Model the fold of this input.
Amino acid sequence: MADKKHVRLGVNIDHVATLRQARGTTYPRPLEAARLCVEAGAEGITIHLREDRRHIQDADLHELKRELTIPLNLEMANAPEIVEIALKAHPEEVCLVPEKRMEVTTEGGLDVAGQKENLRSTVQRLKDAGIAVSLFVEANRRQLEASAEVGVPYVELHTGTYCDARGAKAEQELERLVEGAILAHSLGLKVNAGHGINLDTISGILQMPHLDTLNIGHSIVARAVMVGLREAVRETIEAMSHYTGGRGG
Done:
């Protein structure tokens, strides 16, 4: 039997805030959700402070940073206002992502190769502040090599296309993710993954080698409606516990 390897779960709690913002109430509180995730075994909490503030608010960021006992990962655009907020709030981790005002959710990876100098400056400022930085990217050579050149320690590979695909297309996308993880590792980058992962797709994701962290949000919050947040997190951790290092690594 192959040895199991540990992969961390970071739970994205954005959609707890989505429920709150839908009615303009003070509940449900992202902090309360985060605490339940911690109790269930999550090793990180992820939030996306969008420029349009459609779910997570500035006050959530500051409260979570103040109260959390596990690392906080802030997803954010490379926007001057948000960068300054991040530098003041000082989360343990930042993941730079593309952001479009009209999108329902993040639609793809960051074009690192097309904006290396701009990203390099932001990455250096965050690193100088002691914040670990990752870039949310597609699993292709051009973007991964550019990420290494920018100087980040981590990349988060965009898994959404695979998770939405079926049949031969899914196999093709999974192979791309596997090859991307191998390349990222060879470039000295630690490998995270996220977007669209749920209990139906996670077995495929766990074929990726060199995984450090999976960031999962919408599916866990959606599952929590049925079974509760602690149980939804525990189910995901149980599924992740079968990781044996992926293939081709």
